[in-house]
Design brief:
The chain is of the alpha+beta class. It is built from 4 helices and 4 strands, in the order αβααβαββ. The longest helix is centred in the middle third of the chain and has 21 residues. The termini are far apart.
């Protein structure tokens, strides 16, 4: 579909990019990142190895999105385990947008 490939793409990225229709690319992509610790555990690796792999994946994703000209990329990086362990937030009566931990 594409003849012109943006500078900086590696061979694999360029092959994928050639298959894209720029008219159909979204203006914003959001990614929920989760599971780095579980990824490492399944491979019998320390949890920090999963976080390092996550950093590499984020770097690659952000750099590729920039090279192809994606206007907006949102990364959500709050793990399921952290969510379960997060303190409950109480919203005061009156609907204040400032929540205080219980």
């Amino acid at each position: 579909m594409q003849d012109k490939v943006p500078a900086g793409l590696d061979r694999k990225e360029a092959e994928v990019y050639r298959q894209l229709d720029p008219e159909r690319l979204p203006g914003h992509i959001a990614i929920i990142m989760d599971g780095n610790g579980r990824w490492a555990k399944r491979r019998h690796m320390p949890r920090v190895a999963g976080h390092r792999a996550g950093v590499a994946a984020v770097r690659s994703t952000v750099e590729t999105a920039a090279r192809i000209g994606l206007p907006a990329l949102t990364l959500y990086a709050f793990s399921e385990e952290n969510w379960k362990n997060a303190p409950t937030l109480a919203v005061p009566q009156g609907g204040s947008s400032h929540a205080e931990p219980e």
